[in-house]
């Protein structure tokens, strides 16, 4: 138990945002796939997994998105793996969509007689509990929130494997999405761009970690 505690704390202490990659060093395929598994196995609200991961290897497309991706300027070149995290479209995330039906039936394998109850529960959650149907933005932002769960798990998995990473949301979504759609990277009927991560090995030292103290972050309310 003591060892597990030490391992967890060291992992989180050691993970940091990489601001410069060695272009000569590649993350091994086996490590990359373990990082992707950490994403795939991540939890999501009601288990709808509203994400897809795209490993962007195409140099020409990277060049095109670079001017609109200021948060990736120190990683898009040197990093050996550059991943786009897509969020499912609003059309797919509505309680009555084909995608939700597919997940409920084919992936989660709920029997037919339980499907209407699942749909009603999700409808109530979307319309009443979280008011996700009030605007297109509300639903999309909720879906994006889900994608930050695999995003975070990938960062932690990479840190455990000694792989450096950069979480990225420093980009102009409209501009980058326009390029990715035009280039056929994803179908806008089903996906939108949520965030990105670069993986690789650093070529410079990073700033020491700065965080607020635990007393400021954790409050016990009896
Ligand atoms: C959601 C999210 C988006 C971020 N976007 C960027 C980014 O676009 N570019 C970048 O260099 N760092 C980005 N960061 C890194 C943060 O600046 C960094 O996590 C924070 O300063 C703490 O430093 P640390 O990760 O080294 O502990 C992002 C982090 C998160 C969690």
Automatic annotation (TrEMBL):
The keyword Plastid does not apply. InterPro entries: NfsB-like, Nitroreductase, Nitroreductase-like, Nitroreductase/BluB. Belongs to the nitroreductase family. This is NAD(P)H-dependent oxidoreductase. Keywords: Flavoprotein, FMN, NAD, NADP, Oxidoreductase. It comes from Dehalobacterium formicoaceticum. SUPFAM superfamilies: FMN-dependent nitroreductase-like. Its cofactor is FMN. Residues 14-201 form the Nitroreductase domain.
